[in-house]
Fold Survival protein SurA (Peptidyl-prolyl cis-trans isomerase SurA).
Amino acid sequence: MKYIISAIYIGLLGMAPIAGQSQQNGLVVDKIIAKVDNYIVLKSDLESTYLNYLASGNPATPEAKCRILAQLISQKLMVAKAEIDSVIVTDAEVDNNLDRRMQMILSQYGGSAEQLEEYYGKTIEEFQADIRDQVKEQLVVQRMQESITSGIKVTPSEVRKFFSKIPQDSLPYFSTEVEVAQVVKIPSVGRDEIAEAKRKLNEIRDKVLAGESFETLAKEYSQDPGSAKFGGNLGFAKRGMMAPEFEAAALKLKPNEISKPFETQFGVHIVQLLERRGNEYNSRHILLMAAPSQDDIKHATNYLDSIRSKILADSISFEKAAKEYSDDIYTAGNGGFFMDQVGGTRVSVEDLDPVVFFTIDSMKVGDISRPMNFRTDDGKEAVRILYYKSKVRPHQANLREDWQKIQAAALNEKKTKALNTWFNKAREDVFISIDKTYDHCGIMN
């Protein structure tokens, strides 16, 4: 397939909003333009994906549309082969991914379910049903790609050979990059603060029992960023998906009953059970994250100060301290380091959190900051120390300074070749038909 290589990942970017828009506004007279066994590619699929491609700032060219069509056909080929090879994606995986996708889509409408429903002329449930098959297909494609490319590695000699083939005037130019790590401590919340959160939730619960809307109160008071904008609605969940305390509280209830306040690792909740279907249940909740007191924050600060002293005395390395003591699950396993897109520890200053950037701007390479307060991505008050390990000035790509990035590019090229080999073989196992309008693309050549 001529265009598979450059287009392989385009369809995994999430096109649901644009796809819906093009069909709603009648921009495309739909028809089948390709078949792969029992799977079809519609003209609206091609046009909406092409619109998404253009919206990302890419140039409009006939060749780009051919690449996208080839990629859509390759996706259908992977799905067809997954069916033959019994590659399975579970309903739970689809539901979890769909929930995250819906939150992303809703964020484009200011978190307003009403705006989305008005724009598309359908309910949230209908919209989810419309894109569920698309989400499942994309997960199947990802699973197939992982299966095909698993175990592929590159040797140092292959990396050097890959780099030597890049023309000198085509080498990328990298902006300033830094290595920065953190050790995070989230203050333990005192019992008085937890008791105050429970008192507030009891007041909210009383309002619901008196006739006020649970969803309205959730939007006003809940501190769960994922569900508050949806009126606290969490949708259907299988057993084992939620925190154990949450699940236990929800499943003790009768439909429409509201729990008393209870604690989980995320904070203090009240939950309303909406419906049960066998092993699944639908619920909504209001979460309050009890704020730590000044004494709680001071205790966390002193704790990090003692760790910093041990690091400065060479009693423990920063990386080991992060792995053993940091409360940040995203960086602790990396020795506290922020990572780039290919898993490297050197991050462009343009991609750093502005607070981190301005902090290290006043530090010297090798410095470890004193404990400082900040808010985590989910809104919790926390304290951290930062380690400014290194700084690399703007430069043109070279093997000495950019080995990890070049290695990742070489690995991606090798995986792409493996995918091409797979496609050329797999297309013999299925029926593929493409509308003659697209003969100029030479997709089957």
Notes: The chain has a mean pLDDT of 88. The first strand starts at residue 32 and ends at 36. The chain has three domains: 4-155+406-441, 173-187+293-396, 191-288.
